[in-house]
Amino acid sequence: MLKLATGALLETVANSSHRATPPASSAVLLRPHSRQLGSDSSNIDRPTTANDEGATSRSSESSREGCKSADSAPKEPPVPPGEEECCGTGCSNCVWLLYAEELVDYYRDNGARAAQEVAKIPDPNVRQFVKTELDHMLKSEK
């Protein structure tokens, strides 16, 4: 009897969906160059393949290159990302790295004004991270 009840329980759990149904627009694009954030529940039936990931990274690289290949600097200074945009794990596509790149592109004075903008970042850990990356970017340009 216990075996039958356990089997029925396992069958019920196996047949039930454990994920909530995503809203109509579950993906959010926070900044023009940021990754698309959203629920991964749309990928339940379709596993991700290496080709899918390559296509995604190529499209984001090409959009980023398109912005860099513009003849003039952006007209407005870049806006620092909000707290909700950074996951805090130090990922390779960090929004703070993009912010540092945008600062270098906007302020073309070898980083003096970009460093002033970085000094305004309230979190000391993020500020040091961006400052280090900014220094690295400026050294690699020379």
UniProtKB/TrEMBL annotation:
<feature type="domain" description="Oxidoreductase-like">
    <location>
        <begin position="74"/>
        <end position="108"/>
    </location>
</feature>
<dbReference type="InterPro" id="IPR019180">
    <property type="entry name" value="Oxidoreductase-like_N"/>
</dbReference>
<dbReference type="Pfam" id="PF09791">
    <property type="entry name" value="Oxidored-like"/>
</dbReference>
<dbReference type="InterPro" id="IPR039251">
    <property type="entry name" value="OXLD1"/>
</dbReference>
<protein>
    <recommendedName>
        <fullName>Oxidoreductase-like domain-containing protein</fullName>
    </recommendedName>
</protein>
<dbReference type="GO" id="GO:0005739">
    <property type="term" value="C:mitochondrion"/>
</dbReference>
<feature type="compositionally biased region" description="Polar residues">
    <location>
        <begin position="36"/>
        <end position="60"/>
    </location>
</feature>
<feature type="region of interest" description="Disordered">
    <location>
        <begin position="12"/>
        <end position="86"/>
    </location>
</feature>
